[in-house]
Predict the structure.
Amino acid sequence: MSDQTFDVAIVGAGLVGSSLALALRGTGLSVALIEARAPQPLPADASWDNRIYAISPSSVNFLARLGVWAELPAERMARIEAMAIYGDDGHSRLDFSAYEAGLAQLAYIVESRLLQAALWRALQTANDVTLICPAECAALHIEADGAHLSLRDGRQIAAKLIVAADGGRSWVREQSGIEAHDKDYRQLGVVANFTTELPHQGIAYQWFGRDGVLAYLPLPGNRISIVWSLQEDVAQDLLQLPPAELCERVAQASGMRLGKLELMTLAAAFPLHLITPDHLIKPRIALIGDAAHQVHPLAGQGVNLGFADAKALAAVLAGRGPRDCGDTLLLRRFERARCEEILAMQLVTDGLHGLFNQPQPVLGWARNAGLALTNRFTWVKRQLVKHALGNI
Ligand SMILES: Cc1cc2nc3c(=O)[nH]c(=O)nc-3n(C[C@H](O)[C@H](O)[C@H](O)COP(=O)(O)OP(=O)(O)OC[C@H]3O[C@@H](n4cnc5c(N)ncnc54)[C@H](O)[C@@H]3O)c2cc1C
């Protein structure tokens, strides 16, 4: 016996699962959103989150349609107006600018917890979404006519479709028997926020080095957030440094591009993996967000890919006609709509990571020549920008 029955049960109310729940409003589907962690209140001191996202224009449009974008405090967001990417030979450089691409900005930098809080606020007023939180899943049974979730507190949920939005280590994916290939990069992504001596002028910088990739991402004012992917042991050493030494190490790695740095938030680190499931769907199951694809953060595209999954799945479900929303043929439409972009992002991020992690001199020449050449061809750059920004 099931306590509650829904059309769709989404497991995981992170950024991607929450966005899907909101996108399903008005489709006539009843939705349960199940989240293990209780929501975190925003800090009273308005301190800056060291988890930030570069949100692409297509994700901005999606969040705007959900009524979430306008709720974000404009004074806490920065526009990326240009990007400068450097190779590891000290001079090869690739530049992108919003002006060249005919856009007002290439992306926005947004703090994770502000975006999560805005999504959760919108969920409070969504009548057709039932938020079940905190709740941990204990068992999943898939049958021909529906799926059944047992929660650890004894509650039973029945749904025609279960959506896995429960992150890279997806419990739903594992329980439903979808195999996933996990490549451990043996790197940590070190994140921290700094104030800078010089203004960033809305430019995001990225340095590809043999030991990792360092990104400076603009925050409002003379502030930046960094993501530095480094070998695990090097990253651990960095995390142990006193603040002044950490600032010095980061500033030196950037060639003092924005002058001296001062630490604003403690550094944190995240393990980096490429997780590739064999399928995005199975009868009565669909994977979205990191559950469907975890990629190296060097392109800053993980959550953008996840928002595009949520948008595509919501569109397929909205156009279901008389079909049951867990119907495999319907879910295949979603898989077909997403597989090309996901594969391209996996190849680009894994390829770039591999290219800059090889000690062979010929590859060193090729990667730097590649950057310099691409920089000279406006058409190629436009295609790269278009690809990175998604269908706006
Ligand atoms: C260092 C770093 C920098 C990054 N920078 C960017 C960037 O600039 N731009 C970008 O687009 N992407 C970026 N990413 C990628 C981005 O963080 C992820 O793609 C994104 O957070 C995935 O969101 P998600 O909602 O799919 O998963 P998650 O954020 O992992 O959310 C999963 C949710 O499911 C819940 N959950 C898990 N298991 C269960 C369960 N069994 N039952 C119930 N709930 C459960 C969790 O509590 C969580 O709330 C970065 C990643 C890293 C590591």
